[in-house]
Design goal:
8 strands; eight-stranded antiparallel beta barrel; single chain
Length: about 140
């Protein structure tokens, strides 16, 4: 019985993490796909969606079907609005691989529409606390 419980604990923890990751939007320090050649780390902060201004700035949402949407939004329309989407895969409770499918940029900047099939990388998931996560690129 103890052996079964010990075997199930990592799967329960991974499931709990993925539900936590997918439970709400996150603030992210940079838009995924803007720079694909020198990505070392992303910093995520859980968003308080009760605050009516939560949607402004860089955000990312991880959906249960394995897709993500990363975008910048602002209250006014006079800005540059980058966005990206793609897929992710949780290989275990401490690793996530991010795949970029599309990067767009519009507004008061150069308009870009890039369809790609880039693997951004595999990242180690480092929880700073229950509201902050760092994704640190794993050397491959």
């Amino acid at each position: 019985m103890k052996l079964i419980i010990l075997i199930l604990i990592p799967f329960i923890w991974l499931n709990g993490f993925s539900q936590n990751l997918q439970s709400n939007p996150w603030r992210i320090d940079k838009i995924i796909g803007r720079d694909t050649s020198n990505v070392q780390e992303f910093t995520l902060q859980k968003i308080d969606t009760i605050n009516k201004w939560w949607m402004w700035g860089n955000t990312i949402e991880f959906f249960p079907n394995g897709n993500f949407l990363c975008r910048y939004s602002a209250k006014c329309g006079n800005d540059c609005f980058p966005s990206s989407n793609g897929n992710y895969k949780l290989s275990d409770s401490t690793h996530i691989t991010i795949f970029l499918k599309e990067y767009n940029q519009r507004g008061e900047c150069e308009n870009i529409h890039r369809i790609t099939d880039d693997t951004i990388g595999t990242f180690v998931i480092v929880r700073k606390d229950k509201s902050n996560i760092r994704l640190i690129r794993q050397n491959e």
